[in-house]
């Protein structure tokens, strides 16, 4: 039970604007894993995420989440899957006209089946779980700092206690301390709540600290799928190019000190 | 698989047994039971709980609080226990510093609204002042104007509005001629339909209807476009480049409408008169040549001028209100929506108000 596969992507092909973004993408994610998807700009990381989330219909191929083929699933089957995942978008995508608390209540009200008082209490617990101060509950997204917005988005993503959470660049635009805090938060949530995470990130520190496996996307397919250290030692030219930037090198040097 | 959370009290053993899935979507029934619970059990048996999430953990904690005494909860699986502990700790922190939704008294709200109204009035004056200064600047140095965006705005707000205005004004012409015709027929004064429709369309209907259409069409589009740019910090980006958003974005729009609106009203005149001409022929038997001959003799040119003289003022109202409301948007998608609505409502209101004032002034000047 603990090691069953919850996402399977097989032979995924995507053509956008006359260009093949994905030619043959295959991978799977097991329950309780933290997976990071990396690759150069424009290699289709976000497109892959959007395909899995059913925001984009792939040109060909199959994607199954929790054993349901999300491409061919009926509305009701898809809804059952959607209740089991949470998504944190890159630009946080909080509803700008609602406070943080109302953002979370919006989902809880729809699906949780609790009374209003219970929902408010639960929403506050989510705010705490995401590492925000309780005072942030009554603030509007425009009044929050970048790091707080990310955390509020995470609080909304975990509103329904999903088993699977997608994170699009969770640490981008955060100072090292907040980013580190978010890394710990992800690990804590996996430990305490048994969640599975799929994230897209470029943050080297996050990459070597958080994920169990790293999927390197390039040339329209998965070029490597292994631990971060193993992927770094891969000799595929695209992967070498990705890691040859001076920031990656400097990060290494700093770590060896 | 989908057994909802449930709770049972056994009076003989004094034990509460919990079972099922204590997770979102399965707990609405058990929540009611918990708040109605009034027994004092000896222990809580949680060994049959199949799954638990934070919502379930929250309810379990509520149950523990309601039972109050230090009743042991036995058999809870380790990972659920860990979750319960995290949730309990978080609730304690939340309850240790109560936070309330910040909402003031009525007096506070009235005061806030008054101050905001005054601030809006001042900012509108500042906006008007900025625009006037920029306009004077352009008169002195016309090369500073963004000619390319001026042409673009004339295309968007003027040229592309031609079809809708042609259709609307033809229909207005038909309606006016029909209503007048019905009355005039009674007195066998059919031919006067030419004088009456001519004056009404040239002086009032065309400037007013065209301006209202353009207010609905263009004022809202200015407000939405500028409001979205403001929310996306695009206006701030312009400012940091040392470029004035008012000069780059507002001025071309205002000047474009200043040029386009009189032309649109002229276009509306043609179609309005055409509509009444068609109606006069089909219901009153006045053919086109007779209509135009009478029109030339009886409708003084001053009515055309009096209609057109109002349009520059209307164009300033439309573009000014639209841009001003766009600049006032802040923070959220909803505020862009509110500002767009306000732009349409205020622009149309002020156009009708200004039209009324023009009538009074013309009357007073005996024009």
What are the defining features of this structure?
heterodimer, A: 257 residues, alpha/beta, Rossmann fold, 4-stranded antiparallel beta sheet, 10 helices, globular, B: 367 residues, 4-stranded mixed beta sheet, 4 strands
Neighbour order of strands in the largest sheet of chain A: 6-7-8-3-9-10
Oligomer: heterodimer
Question: What does the overall shape of chain B look like?
Answer: elongated
What is the C-alpha radius of gyration of chain A, as a whole number of Å? 18 Å
CATH topology of the largest domain in chain A: Rossmann fold
Query: What string gives the helices and strands of chain B in order?
Result: EEHEHEHHHHHHHHHHH
What class do helices, strands and sheet pairing of chain A give? alpha/beta
How many runs of DSSP E, i.e. beta strands of chain A? 10
| Mean pLDDT score of chain A | 84
Beta-strand content of chain B: 5-15%
Radius of gyration of chain B: 35 Å
Helix content of chain A: 25-40%
DSSP helix count of chain B?
Answer: 13
The global form of chain A is: globular
Helix content estimate of chain B = over 70%
Low-confidence stretches of chain B: none
The CATH homologous superfamily of the largest domain in chain A corresponds to: P-loop containing nucleotide triphosphate hydrolases
